[in-house]
Amino acid sequence: MVIEGYLFDAYVEGGRIAVWIWSQGSVVKLYDSFQPALYVIPDKRLIAFLLARHVPMRYVIRKDFTEQQDIRVLELLPGIGRFQEIVRAIEDIGSYTYELYNADIPLEQRYFFERGLFPSCRVRVAVEESVEKEAAYDVANGQRITSQRTTND
Length: 153
What we know:
By secondary structure, the chain is of the alpha+beta class. Helices cover 20% and strands 44% of the residues. A hairpin with a 4-residue loop joins strand 9 and strand 10.
């Protein structure tokens, strides 16, 4: 089954993004897993702090757009449910001791940007029914989503 409609809302719900699509007079609520990354230039103290909180991390090279050069940063993947908690905890360590990247962009806005979507865009979603009567959706951009269908009464 294919659902076509207009994307009209997205927000964080639990550890994922809830997405609403208006389709043929009803609405479809989809859940998408989303792993926003946070970047920081760390020191040993911050690394110990993050390890104690079991935050997945790795070093990567990213472009610093203000300096127009590549920099080595620590990529943090705390999960969408812990993202703001980890940002606040890092900021609380030392009143902006650490330079954070991508920490102040709202998660819903990042979701749209990283998925190549925008509010009210037309989407086409292929639906595969599973044994549990949940549905797995493969959005045109290749993302996997599970769904809970709701209709207008």
